């Protein structure tokens, strides 16, 4: 008899902890970025943002590997491989004496973290679909968001007693713990009869089928655009709060408040999605962050390009609340038609959306000029485009439903 899934609470926490490895690798580093830039003697202060964006690049490539192979080997072997690669990347970054080795380690961290990022979605999709899947993913995201809230405190605390290299040592230890937990408590969710022998031609045909679904392609594009704005936020928020607003060691407190906005949205979404549905919530959330950005930009141009901290924080909390509504729902919308192609589908959706978001986020971060203008403008422009594309995506979904 096949081993049963863990109970609901343990399942949500385990899935959240696996998914949060990448978030931990991002957010715990934020307080140390200036110190890393100084120690590795970077020529341009904005170059340190590559520590964030290179991780996402590795994640995008990794999802193209782990997802398709998991449909053939099962979910667990690929999860083990990804966690091992993540540990190797942690070691390389920990011992790095130059920026190239640091970025190589970060790339491997991202590549390895692609396994839990894509496979956790596939694991949930193996057993759930539609609104129930969105509900589980929203609860998972609510637990997951505790990591971004606490990670900067962890990084700041480590910096009080050691240097930034000890942060990577912590990544190594925590990923080993999650590896052991997953190995003993999570059964294989993809049964033998549902596995498909891996072949490039077979994978290419499935990939073509997925991309040819216009609704999937459009929801994936929208996810990439919006996540590009969010990546621009992640890339520049340390410089904005620590340097521009002079928060220094108080940065983790303010970052935790912003992360709470996303986490609270995930909890709210878990209740609202069963009543209103994913499409309605996505439309309202995109409208929210676009209108907020428009009014904030207007206020900046009329008054001052350097708004007071309280005003900027209020804007970001509301914007990130909208992002928290969008993350789980957009992913569930894109995954909904994919059924037994969940492994490949999760990897393709994650990879393509990340490939879209990385250059957009890097561009927003690159144009950081000591003001919040590039960040807010990024949310406005990308939100406006996404709002238009949502209409086409919903129409495509209706047409596919009718033709199906």
Key words describing this protein structure:
transmembrane helix; transport; 404 residues; MFS_dom; Growth Hormone, Chain: A; 15 helices; Bcr/CflA family efflux transporter; cell membrane
Structure, explained:
The protein has a single domain (8-185, 212-403), classed as Growth Hormone, Chain: A (Up-down Bundle), CATH 1.20.1250.20. Helix content is 81%, strand content 0%. It contains 15 helices and no strands. It has 404 residues and is mostly helical. Helix 1 runs antiparallel to helix 5, helix 1 (8-27) packs antiparallel against helix 8 and helix 3 (50-73) packs across helix 5 (99-125). 53% of the residues are buried. It has helices at residues 8-27, 33-39, 50-73, 75-95, 99-125, 130-144, 146-161, 165-185, 200-212, 214-244, 251-276, 278-302, 309-335, 342-366, 373-403. The longest helix is centred in the middle third of the chain and has 31 residues, at 214-244. InterPro entries: Efflux_drug-R_Bcr/CmlA, MFS, MFS_dom, MFS_trans_sf. It is a multi-pass membrane protein. Keywords: Cell inner membrane, Cell membrane, Membrane, Transmembrane, Transmembrane helix, Transport. Belongs to the major facilitator superfamily. Bcr/CmlA family. This is Bcr/CflA family efflux transporter.
